[in-house]
Amino acid sequence: MKYLSFDKEQLVNLEYSLNREILSTNRAGGYFSTTIILCNTRKYHGLMILPIDEFDGENHVLLSCVDETVIQHGQAFNLGIHRYPGIYEPRGHKYIVDFEYEPTPTLTYRVGGVILKKELLFVHNEEQFMIRYTLLDAHSPTRLRIKPFLAFRNVHNVSKANMWANTKYQVCANGVKYKLYTGFPTLHLQLNKKNEFVASPDWYYNIEYMEELKRGYEGHEDLFVPGYFEIPIKKGESVIFSAATDEQTPSALLRKFNAEIERRPAKDSYKNCMANSAHQFIVHKGKKWEIIAGYPWFGSWGRDSFISLPGLTLGLDDPKMCKTLLDSLSTTLKNGLFPNMGNTTTQAFNSVDAPLWYFWAIQEYYLYTGDFKEVWKDFGKKMKTILKGYREGLAYNIKMHDNGLIWAGEKGYALTWMDAVVHGKPVTPRIGYPVEINALWYNAMMFTIDLATKNKDYRFVKEWLPITERTKASFNSIFWLPDKGYLADYVDEEGPNTDIRPNQIFALSLPYSPLDEDKMPSVLRVIDKELYTPKGLRTLSPNNPNYRGRYEGDQPTRDTAYHQGTAWPWLLGAYVEAHFRLNPQNAINIATSIIESFQEDISVHGICSIAEVYDGDPPQRPNGCISQAWSVAEAIRIQKMIDNYKPNKK
């Protein structure tokens, strides 16, 4: 049995099938994503979604879906499926007899004596999506009708029927090409053999996206169908449908499809699934390399990039890619901060921790390679610049105080990773001294001092070593709650915030910790008891009156729960590191149970990947993005910790 297997009997069960989503990327920012029966349930679903430079690099859905109709003896059987208000029409999923994910998403349909295989493929490093139809069996002459549904809109919006769409087409080799609106690329729709294109332009109204309605968004869309291709197909024959921004040579399509299939990595084990997922986040376009934070709706985020970077590269023993990404991401530093989110013209430099995670990513690279000269030569100057910026003051009141601690925050902004904002107000503002920021700050200073010492930059060491001593003393006196046995989440003018949150885990996990060692076991016990689940650390103790155990509802409801109890898988990397620091033998058991827990979910929500978040309450349902970079990265790092563990032999 294949590692990624699906219950053939359940494929016609919509509750089963619509909760399983697929994702495939072209490694250059484009992707396709939908459910395993190809019924779109999100506005972010589509068969060809591309970043478009003319629109600030944001993702746009060009090709939403493709319906096929099998024609025999004058009878037509539509294999497509769409949801409209209160109804599914057509209901082509009833013909599905098999779904496979490896080597590429593949469906098999049975219509009477006809057995048709449909394979979906996004070409790597190109803007081309292909479908291969193979007629496995048929006892009578068979024709195939292929009907594309076009959207040409931003992923965050839905399209509506209108009069200004350019519905005229031009002929290209074995196909037609469309460009519905100015600024978009031309989409070439072609087949690998001669066919008949029947132009019957029409709008399909009110296609419904259930997941968007659940999330409180507009969930109805009108899609433009230009007509259909019709072609005879013989038993054993394969027909290729191609959608691409460049015109293709029809005779080369089948050969290209076969070559691309050969390049697909194996997904025959948990480790291989994680490696495949990791590669999908790394995007190379032009001279720029970046990391996508999560599919299907996030772009490249500074904080997420640096947290994800070690797991996605070093966790797969690829230091060369780690260095390539570090070099590329380093160029985005501006005035001491990295962009937290946004594209070229809309960048937001509102992350207090992204530059500090940059140090950690470099540190992990250094610990892997051991080359202190290279690291200092390539990154030392930027590291010093960032430290100086924090000491002297940056935007949003980010500044080192005389006690050696970093203060950060401005009313109306959420600068830490707990950044949800509802009705213009941060849910967890955390203005003051945030605990993880100061743990990261201490680690950044100590790591830089270590590199400076090895590279004989003694002036820097002399300047900064006294600051670290001050930081350490202040950290222990200000954050430690002796009567509770854990660390304050942040400290402001009114004193410590005593909510039990996971941010304190970084005072136990980072290579250089400002926390006194004798305090660490107590902190970890509290996290074990209040926050740990095998799916992630809860963002707030269930004993807190503000705890929200379910991540669901409209955007304000979800955002309120986002950091108020929702469990985040990415926090488990630091949690396992903390256990390895304090109790290595117990850490192995915990790490193994976490990996086993993720293996249970490998064929639900986002197939072959790990979700962004889970409910804090059991049963912990996966939610948010179907494939999240730092979730996957930290799961890979946890597996690496297990693989590298060598028990002490007596």
Largest sheet: 9 strands, mixed
Tell me, briefly, the overall form.
elongated
Q: What structural class do you assign from the helix and strand content?
A: alpha+beta
Q: Compute the gyration radius: what is it?
A: 26 Å
CATH topology description of the domain at 8-263: Beta-galactosidase, Chain A, domain 5
State the distance separating the first and last CA atoms: 42 Å
- Helices, by number, come to 16
What is the percent of helical residues?
A: 25-40%
Strand content: 25-35%
What is the level 1 CATH name of the domain at 8-263?
Mainly Beta
Residue windows where pLDDT falls under 50 for at least 5 positions: none
Architecture of the domain at 8-263, CATH level 2? Distorted Sandwich
Average pLDDT, all residues? 95
Number of strands: 37
